[in-house]
Write a structure and sequence with these properties.
- With 268 residues, the chain is an alpha/beta fold.
- It folds into two domains: 14-106 and 164-214, Rossmann fold, CATH 3.40.50; 109-162 and 219-250, no CATH class.
- It is 43% helix and 9% strand.
- The chain has a five-stranded parallel β-sheet.
- The chain is globular, with a radius of gyration of 19 Å.
- The termini are far apart.
């Protein structure tokens, strides 16, 4: 149960941990439709990953004026994406009395494409503005690990955020089985009500249907066919072995995104 702290402040005990461009926003919005679950002042707070030095009072100030008896939710993809050690999952586990952690992932090739497009739109770095998507992924993947160029820095991030297995194992080791749920973005898109039934059961609340569960939302410009077949094959060779292992470990179905070169269309 959530623990009250101060007038109207509730410690969150539901955490959506990632991945970036993986569906955390829609899942957060779906969960927040439940009358017994409230969101904070913003969806992404990044307390345990980026702002832990601000302290618990700062964190909990995002969860004031919550209806009495309600639980609260924090959805911050960086809790998973930036997990290089057990520190973040341990901080979450120690913070909440009985936390519920949900990891939502997405086909890693689709996710990498979506993040590049997101970066190109939101980041003013000239190096990103002057490169198209196939040029970006034509870089040497292993050289990008050195991050000694601007493009190498961003490519290392895009690829690193698309590798799930090691980070998943770190979380699985820190949480009990009843505290950790793994979801697939594709399943949420295709069968939202069935997935939300499992989510609410995991959170120990009754299923409450909502008409928004049937609304299918897609990220603009993030499909497989935004890249050339050569780029697709390169990303697939690099990312799918890890993704297949992750799916096996997490107990979800492994599927490769299907490339249709007749529909391919690169962005400028």
């Amino acid at each position: 149960m959530s623990i009250l702290k101060g007038k109207g402040a509730v410690k969150p005990d539901i955490f959506i941990t990632g991945v970036m461009k993986g569906g955390t926003t829609i899942l957060h919005d779906y969960i927040s439709t439940h009358p017994q679950i409230s969101s904070g002042t913003q969806k992404e707070i990044h307390y345990f990953s980026l702002f832990y030095d601000k302290g618990p009072d700062w964190y909990e100030s995002h969860f004031t004026n919550v209806p009495e008896g309600n639980r609260t939710i924090d959805a911050s993809p960086t809790y998973f994406d930036t997990t290089n050690t057990s520190q973040i999952p341990r901080l979450i586990h120690a913070y909440a009395e009985d936390p519920r952690v949900i990891l939502i992932t997405r086909d890693p090739v689709e996710r990498a494409i979506s993040q590049f497009i997101h970066l190109k739109v939101t980041t003013s770095a000239p190096a990103l503005q002057d490169v198209d998507i196939d040029e970006f992924f034509a870089q040497n993947f292993h050289d990008a690990y050195r991050q000694n160029t601007t493009l190498g820095y961003y490519l290392n991030q895009v690829l690193g955020f698309s590798l799930y297995t090691r980070k998943f194992i770190t979380y699985r080791q820190e949480f009990e089985k009843h505290q950790f749920l793994v979801l697939d973005n594709q399943s949420l898109r295709e069968s939202p009500r069935a997935v939300m039934e499992s989510v609410f059961a995991f959170l120990n609340v009754d299923y409450v249907d909502n008409k928004v569960f049937g609304v299918v939302k897609h990220s603009n410009g993030s499909g497989i066919n935004q890249i050339s077949l050569e780029s697709y094959n390169k990303l697939a060779e690099f990312l799918y072995p890890d993704y297949k292992h992750f799916c096996h470990q997490a107990g979800i179905t492994f599927k490769e995104a299907v490339y249709d070169d007749k529909q391919s269309a690169n962005i400028a």
